Amino acid sequence: MSKLRLRTKLCDMLGIEYPILSAGMGPTLLGEKTGAPVELVVAVSEAGGMGVLGGSGFTVDELRVAIREIKSLTDKPFGVDLLLPKNIDLGGAMGQQGPEEVPLSEVLKMIPEAHREWVQKIKGEMDLPDVEIMMRTNTTTMRPKESVQVCIEEKVPLFCAGLGNPGFMVDEAHAQGMKVLGITGNAKNAKRMADSGIDLLVAQGHEGGGHTGRIGTMVLLPAAIDAATPVPVIAAGGIGDGRGLAAALTMGCIGAWVGTRFLATDEGGALDINKKKIVQSSDEGTRVSTAYTGKTLRASYNKYHDLWAGSGLEPLPFPTQIVISSTLLAAFIDSGKEDFVGGLAGQVSGIIHEVKPAAQVLEEMVAETIDILKNKLPETVKM
Ligand SMILES: Cc1cc2nc3c(=O)[nH]c(=O)nc-3n(C[C@H](O)[C@H](O)[C@H](O)COP(=O)(O)O)c2cc1C
To answer: Which of 133, 137, 189, 217 has the most CB within a 10 Å radius?
Structure first.
């Protein structure tokens, strides 16, 4: 990029050129390891933003390999995002011992009877095949303590906790020269996280893809800024171009954490079917459902949302519900039922019309933000 200048405190804190982070995104749908793979991280960091690896779908060993691969491909700073449980000492919800892979059909036998029967009923009614897939029990989400240690040993420049409060690791991370980032969807949690000593807080509004809260970005940003002061806030949820970034900066944020827009890039880790759904989507093309992980999660709308809503069942606690969604999604994909398949994505899908290189997305966002703040705003607003 010819030298555009758009700097905030975030650039100084992280040693980057532009105040844009590509969000840490884990698996978007059955079949990929992550929505934010090494290629995306390297492309964004090389272009002057900060790429964040979506580490939640990797095994602990794969996480270390991916971090080292990033280091071999760029000397620019980068981040790693993991999903942490509420209590790190209790580990992931599914235990830390036993085999590293188990057949999903075996795990299905362990869920409550009503849920199991519902899965069988749907399979019977829709004539779905038995698709055997192996469920990995050694992912970073199942083994969070070891995974955090990998990040600390590897001195990852920015550690991001997609779920959970990373306050417990701040001292150790700082001793390695790392920064620590937490993510919130409401003001109460923003204060709790800020008080725990983190360096940066992402406030993600309801519009956002993946796990998401109830508060829209427009209200959440000022509320989170007030609650987290003096910890600086980065905006997320619905930011897809320079208009979104300019608005976030105007509200007092120091940058943006951008998910869906970077997912729909050449380097984004989503399946092609998922990228296609994003670019074809209108602004009403996504819905929040507990069908996938048991937590409220936004994905491209598909008929699986309706099936689950009609089940009358309570979702199983995160991440156990994934046993149900994985079983059915594997069968939907295998039998070509595309209407029942859609990956994680945000409302911003409605303003994304093209899959392009990540560096281009970043460059256009920077250029448009500068144009708005420098030229368009003074033309529109007279004071
Ligand atoms: C496919 C996908 C996977 C995601 N996985 C994670 C994750 O593993 N960890 C996390 O912190 N956030 C995850 N998120 C949320 C993003 O980090 C980010 O907060 C969100 O995408 C921002 O909203 P936007 O999609 O409107 O840009 C995911 C989002 C998407 C779209």
So the answer is: 217
pLDDT tens digits, residue range 187-209? 999 999 999 999 999 999 999 99
Kindly tell me if the per-residue pLDDT of 30 is higher than 70. no
Whether 231 and 219 have beta carbons less than 8 Å apart is answered as: no
Question: What is the structure's pLDDT at 66?
Answer: 98
Q: Which DSSP letter does residue 344 get?
A: B
Tell the residue nearest (CA) to atom 3 of ligand 1: 25
Placement of tokens 């071999």 in the chain? 72
* CA–centroid distance, residue 210 to ligand 1 (Å): 5
Q: Dihedrals φ, ψ of 331, to 5°?
A: -70, -40
CATH number of the CATH domain containing 186: 3.20.20.70
Ligand 1 proximity of 24 Cβ (cutoff 6 Å): yes
Is 344 inside any structural domain?
A: no
Question: Is the predicted pLDDT of residue 365 greater than 80, yes or no?
Answer: yes
Best residue among 25, 52, 53, 273 to mutate for probing ligand 1, ranked by most atoms within 8 Å of CB: 25
Give the Cα separation of 264 and 8 in Å (integer): 26
Top pLDDT among 95 and 235 is at 235
pLDDT of the residue at 273 = 84
- On the question of pLDDT at 91 being above 80, the answer is no
Count: domains in the chain: 1
Cα(237)–Cα(178) distance, rounded to whole angstroms?
25
The Cα–Cα gap between 20 and 365 comes to 9
**Range of 372's domain?**
9-98+137-271+355-380
- Written as one letter, the residue type at 330 is A
Q: Whose CA is nearest to atom 17 of ligand 1?
A: 23
Q: What SS3 class is residue 93?
A: coil
pLDDT of residue 94: 47
For ligand 1, whether the C-beta of 182 sits within 6 Å is no
Looking at ligand 1, which atom is closest to the CA of residue 347? 26
Phi, psi for residue 14 in degrees, rounded to 5? -105, -5
The answer to whether residue 58 sits within a structural domain is: yes
Residue 166 falls inside a structural domain: yes
Distance 3 CA to ligand 1 centre (A): 29
Contact (CB, 8 A) for 274 and 31: no
